[in-house]
Amino acid sequence: MSSQLKAQIVLDRNYKIARVDERIYGSFIEHLGRAVYGGIYDPHHEQADEQGFRKDVIHLVKELQVPIIRYPGGNFVSGYNWEDGVGPMRDRPRRLELAWRTIETNEIGTNEFADWANKVNADVMMAVNLGTRGIDAARNLLEYTNHPGGTYWSDLRKSHGYEKPHKFKTWCLGNEMDGPWQIGHKTAHEYGRIAKETAKAMKLVDPDIELVACGSSNTGMATFPEWEAITLDHTYEEVDYISLHQYYGNHENDPANYLAKNMDMDHFIKTVTSTCDYIKAKHRSKKTMHLSFDEWNVWYHSREADKKIEPWTISPPQLEDHYNFEDALLVGSMLITFLQHADRVKMACLAQLVNVIAPIMTENNGRAWKQTIFYPYMHTSIYGRGVSIKPILSSPKYDSKEFTDVPYIDCAAVFHEENEELTLFLVNKHLSETIHLNADIRSFEEYQVVEHLVLENDHLKAANTAESQNVVPHANGESTNEGGQLQIIVPKTSWNVIRLKKFMM
Ligand code: AHR
Predict the structure, then answer these.
(1) Which residues form the Alpha-L-arabinofuranosidase C-terminal domain (predicted)?
(2) What CA–CA distance (Å, rounded) separates 503 from 420?
(3) What pLDDT, on the 0 to 100 scale, is given for residue 1?
(4) Is 252 found in the same domain as 317?
(5) Ligand 1 pocket: which of 69, 75, 129, 214 to mutate (most atoms <8 Å of CB)?
(6) d(CA 233, CA 225)
(7) Is 363 annotated as catalytic?
(8) Same-domain check for residues 129 and 191
(9) What whole-number distance in Å separates Cα of residue 339 and Cα of residue 262?
(10) 83 noted as active-site residue
(11) Which residue among 168, 196, 332, 489 is least enclosed by CB atoms within 10 Å?
């Protein structure tokens, strides 16, 4: 007997969640492993430009249309002296880099990274060191990067060849300060105080900046969500965002449970949102705090290999996860989760961008290629701009080891009014069954399907390499709109992008 699984959604153009802030398609480059050296920068590579940046990597990053990139860390920033990375290269010191126990050559620093970000059309989300340093280093760095001139630090920038200020708008007040692994780890009260005072000083230097306070490093932290409550109690009026970080892995090789992990992310976002609103009420504040999910991804494949890395080497291959097809499905579901929370999540950074837990891999002095997770990230970044519309979903559900009532279907919809385009993003988590989805889109009746992209594979562990792209999307998805009823075939374990455009009758 055939067991045809069915699901329904109702999409109404008036059910608006919020305009999608394009910065949810941000990413992250840390001075870690081969992200910078061997990744974006490889001066001896045949594709190196006049500054030593790899043009093939620039091309791939541009395909992703990344609007903002966090820099320079990560754990790295908590031991970083930004002054080491500016001025003539020959004078820059080599340092023991304590977060990842490597040697940092400082060939690339703030100015070069700003140049590279310009080349890929991205803004920079800077982070200041609140681990080993504090208010003074942060305000000096901001004066160096953002002040026009006529002062010690801004004139120093000019003397380094950067006449115009970089005008970095978004700044993170430290990184994962709740984590005992962090250099200069703090209690929530210690962090809340230093974050508030640093924020005050930085906004005196440049009132136009936006600041992100550190939230919890993951949902498993014993201090979550008290950390957010205390931190925001100190900083509520000074900061603009609270950060969230989360990585998932399929440690137990349980795909059904693994693919459900964006439910944990959803819960994380809801809890942080509630905590923000509690502090808003407590402070009788008019301001609404927004969320910056500035580190997220799958991260587990490389954990064992990393234990074998020799300390005090230069840019070793750290955190080099080789992603498979099921990882791409979870990444797709995580992106859908951000779109479902477009009213509060205004920034998010896929961690990271090149080589280190990344959609783009390179060989030193060799090829560059797209990992499986490249595709859902690219699709949402390109087609997920506009207003997030709330789909009312009825889907069959399943229970897994950690989660109950997991809908097989994940769904988000984005309406780009000016371009008259509607895009649906769908994941089918069912390991063996196609799902027939009926989408009632009567308020988009004149819209017809122009493309149905599908990422599917019979092997959950299929991966891409420099030699072969085994996991790539195709455009043969099946969906048709008849009188406002969109019939969509959603293959087992698949990522789908259904693009509709208005056609005049
Ligand atoms: O992205 C890798 C690391 O993960 C970052 O340095 C740190 O912030 C997080 O723990």
Answers:
(1) 294-494
(2) 9
(3) 41
(4) yes
(5) 75
(6) 12
(7) no
(8) yes
(9) 12
(10) no
(11) 489
Question: What CATH number is associated with residue 145?
Answer: 3.20.20.80
Distance 176 CA to ligand 1 centre (A): 8
Query: 165 alpha carbon to ligand 1 midpoint, in Å?
Result: 28
Dig out the tokens for 324 from the structure: 């498979």
pLDDT digits (tens, 9 = 90+) for 234-250: 999 999 999 999 999 99
Same domain? For 32 and 72 the reply is yes
Is residue 198 scored above 60 in pLDDT?
A: yes
Question: What integer is the mean pLDDT of 281-298?
Answer: 98
Number of domains in the chain: 2
Q: Give the other-Cβ count within 10 Å of 64's Cβ.
A: 21
pLDDT confidence of residue 505? 61
**Is the pLDDT reported for residue 3 higher than 80?**
no
Q: Which residues lie with the beta carbon below 6 Å from any ligand 1 atom?
A: 30, 73-75, 175-176, 217, 295, 351-352
Nearest residue (by CA) to ligand 1, atom 8, is 74
> Are residue 324 and residue 437 in the same domain, yes or no?
no
Q: Indicate which atom in ligand 1 lies nearest the CA of residue 351.
A: 1
Residue 475 and residue 419 share a domain: yes
Q: Of 245, 296, 301, which is best to mutate to test ligand 1, by the most ligand atoms within 8 angstroms of its C-beta? A: 245
Which pTM value belongs to this model?
0.97
Residues 121 and 142 in one domain: yes
Strand locations in 3-110 (E): 5-10, 16-19, 26-28, 68-71, 95-97, 102-104
Return the residue whose CA atom lies nearest to atom 9 of ligand 1: 74
Strand 392-394's sheet: what is its strand order? 392-394, 5-10, 435-440, 485-490, 479-482
CATH number of the CATH domain containing 445: 2.60.40.1180
CA–CA separation, 67 and 23 (whole Å)? 6
| d(CA 227, ligand 1 centre) in Å | 18
Q: Which range marks the domain in which residue 416 is found?
A: 5-13+389-502
Examine the domain organization and report whether 214 and 255 are in the same domain. yes
> Which of 348, 383, 418 is at the close of a domain?
383
Residues 474-500 pLDDT 10s: 999 999 998 899 999 999 999 999 999
User: pLDDT tens-digit profile of 78-104?
Assistant: 999 999 999 999 999 999 999 999 999
Which residue's CA is the closest to the ligand 1 atom numbered 7? 74
Q: What Cα–Cα distance (Å) separates residue 43 from each residue in 39, 51, 54, 95, 204?
A: 11, 7, 8, 21, 39
Whether residues 428 and 305 share a domain: the answer is no
328-334: average pLDDT: 98
486 SS3 class: strand
* pLDDT above 70 (res 192): yes
